[in-house]
Amino acid sequence: MYNTLILSDLHLGAETSRAREATQVLKNSRFQRLILLGDIFADLNFARLTKEHWKFLGYIRKLSSPKRHIEVVWVEGNHDHGLTDIMSHLVGIRVYQDYRWDYGGLRHIAIHGHQFDGFQVNRIRLSRWGTSLFLQLQKLDLKGNPITRMIDRLNTRWLRMSAKVASGALAYARQHGAGRIFCGHTHEAIHAEQDGIYYYNSGGWVDSRLTYLTVDEQGVKTHEYNEHDYERADDRDSGEERGEADSATADVADESGLLEDVEYESVGR
User: Fold this and answer.
1) How far apart are CA 251 and CA 231, in angstroms?
2) pTM of this structure
């Protein structure tokens, strides 16, 4: 069993969100703590959520049940901004700006990472528009099309931003006496070390490469989703478990003021 599983940047509401795959990972992993490390939503428009998106939220609510004995933590991202009260009500979990815990003799910090991206901090509205455009271009990517070259240029900028976030996160960890710090935001699963402090990025769930992090006695590991590992995952679910999950999904949708069964319109390397 993992001490902690960390997943970020699911962007529920975006057509590129891989909510079904993320739910499969959670159903087939054992952990004491789950950290949703920001940008779980693309924006505040719940009408864009598909059935798979609602199922993910329903499963989070199920995990947060006291009888599960799992600590579920939501760390706010730049796209989640303004959802603190809503999420606490919908899925029954607390939302943090950053979250800290001690494990294996080390202080750990989980923070989304947009705090270290000056463009996000200073131009948040424009940057949200830019992120949405990037997600749409990924969906429309056609080889041999000028769109592909535009995406390549955006990817290059994203990689430069990855380095900036890593540098800022390492400085933040040093300032707060942490040995490990975890971020999302960049959609790029990387790790770095500086003066004995370790930085890990959990990647994202909108590209072709879907990644998450785990922390246990062996250390920190980056995992990449492989659909073949989960081909029979749904078949292994008991009827009772499916019923509980469906009930949790309906509860989340009903409490949001929306109906889950309404028909909503539905990057790697």
Assistant:
1) 28
2) 0.78
